[in-house]
Design a protein that fits this description.
The protein has 181 residues and is an alpha/beta fold. The chain is 41% helix and 19% strand.
Length: 181
């Protein structure tokens, strides 16, 4: 479905959005999961993630608006070098005209925290309904009921209002990359 989508809204509570991860960060994320994958599964997952990222760079480009909780930047993943490179990559990707990245700061309090991560896909043909995917401990659960999609979109919009602006987000990412050791 993502290959056909025009736009994606994505809210992440404790992770860097998959479409914005470097190869090394994606590998470290998959190797450090509670439900550890074997090396072949890790590499396959990383390759799929990197192929998905092409939609941000190649025509037709996917429009991505991602909200990421500031706490996700504090979760050490891989080495200091992996974290620094990931932060720099977020800066680079957020400069794309089709990518909007906003950090939800600690100062947003409970208004910035939702109970789970989710994505909403919209499609070029208005007759195709938006699709909602909710993250759970057991994987991603597709939800397509119009009221669930509408409620999730409203929650996304509410969190976006308390999130940092894209330019303030970029400034924090640059600072964190500089300070990463």
């Amino acid at each position: 479905m993502e290959n056909e989508a025009l736009a994606m809204l994505e809210y992440h509570l404790a992770a860097v959005p998959g479409l914005l991860q470097t190869r090394d960060f994606a590998r470290a994320t998959n190797m450090e999961m509670v439900r550890a994958l074997d090396l072949d599964q890790v590499e396959a997952t990383v390759e799929v993630r990197l192929r998905r990222q092409r939609r941000l760079l190649e025509e037709p480009r996917l429009s991505l608006h991602a909200l990421m909780w500031e706490g996700a930047l504090s979760v050490v993943t891989g080495s200091a070098e992996v974290m620094r490179d990931q932060l720099r990559y977020l800066v680079t990707m957020s400069a794309l005209p089709n990518v909007t990245l906003q950090l939800v700061p600690f100062s947003a309090g409970r208004r910035g925290l939702l109970s789970s991560s989710f994505q909403i896909l919209t499609f070029p043909d208005a007759r195709d309904p938006d699709q909602l995917f909710v993250e759970s401990l057991l994987g991603t659960i597709p939800r397509s009921h119009a009221h669930e999609v509408a409620q999730s979109r409203a929650l996304f919009d509410q969190v976006a209002q308390v999130a940092l602006s894209p330019s303030d987000t970029k400034a924090i990412l640059i600072e964190r990359a500089r300070d990463a050791r």
